[in-house]
Design goal:
The protein has about 180 residues and is α+β, with helices and mostly antiparallel strands. The protein has a single domain (about 10-180), classed as tt1808, chain A, CATH 3.90.1570.10. The chain is built from four helices and 14 strands. The protein has helices spanning about 10-15, 40-55, 110-125, 175-180, and strands at about 25, 30, 60-65, 70, 75, 80-85, 90, 95, 100-105, 130-135, 140-145, 150-160, 160-165, 170-175. A six-stranded mixed beta sheet has the order 3-6-9-10-11-12, sandwiched between helices. It has a four-stranded mixed beta sheet with strand order 5-4-8-7, with helices on one face.
Length: about 180
C-alpha cells in the first residue's frame, strides 16, 4: 500500500492561525505547545533576570511567546532569546526574522522531543550561535556552540555547576541559582 505524506504547513498557514494560538511550526508540522508549568516559569524568570542584566547595552533578551521565523517551514517560540545589537535588524513588529545569537529552551515532558531533536537541528542549520538546553528535572544546563554549522557541546552543569556564555558576555550562571524555587 502506498503511503501519502501530508503536505507540510508553511509560514503563510502559520500566520493565518488566530493570534495567541498555542502552536509552533517545526519542520512543516504544526505542534501544539501547552502552557508551561509554574516550575518552568520560575526557571525561565531566574534565567531571564541574569540574561537581561548581562545584556545591558549589548542587545535585547526576549521571552516566550515570541515568533522566531527561521525559514519557510519553521516558526519557533523559544523560551528565551538574546539578539545582539549587531543583529538587531532581525527584530520586526511581528517577530524575529532570522537567527537569534542565543536561544534557550527549557525542557518539559510535552516539548522535550522537539527541543532535543527537531528544534536542535533547525537552530543548528539556521545559524543560531549558541543553544542552551535547560532541564529542570535533571537540574542541568547544556551549552552548545555552533562551529562550522554544527552544534558542539562546550559546557554542562548539573546541580552545583556553572556555565558561561561566549555569545552574551558576562553571562555566567550557577545551576543551583537557576533552579532555586521561591
Amino acid at each position: 500500500m502506498l503511503a501519502v505524506k501530508e503536505k507540510p504547513a508553511t509560514i503563510k498557514e502559520y500566520r493565518e492561525l488566530p493570534e495567541g494560538s498555542p502552536y509552533q511550526l517545526i519542520e512543516g508540522e504544526l505542534v501544539m505547545t501547552p502552557a508551561p508549568t509554574p516550575r518552568h516559569q520560575v526557571v525561565s524568570g531566574n534565567l531571564f533576570e541574569r540574561m537581561r542584566k548581562s545584556s545591558r547595552g549589548t542587545g535585547v533578551v526576549l521571552y516566550a511567546p515570541v515568533d522566531v521565523y527561521l525559514d519557510l517551514e519553521n516558526a519557533c517560540q523559544p523560551d528565551l532569546v538574546f539578539i545582539s545589537k549587531e543583529c538587531g535588524q532581525i527584530i520586526k513588529q511581528d517577530g524575529i526574522h532570522g537567527s537569534p545569537d542565543l536561544v534557550v529552551e527549557i525542557l518539559s515532558p510535552s516539548t522535550a522531543y522537539y527541543d532535543l531533536r527537531k528544534k536542535f537541528r533547525v537552530y543548528e542549520r539556521s545559524g543560531v550561535r549558541e543553544y542552551w538546553i535547560v532541564d529542570p528535572d535533571m537540574l542541568s544546563i547544556e551549552v552548545y556552540r555552533n562551529e562550522k554549522g554544527h552544534f558542539v557541546q562546550v559546557a554542562k552543569a548539573e546541580g552545583e555547576g556553572e556555565v558561561e556564555s561566549a555569545v552574551l558576555q558576562g553571562l555566567k550562571v550557577a545551576a543551583a541559582d537557576i533552579f532555586q524555587m521561591p
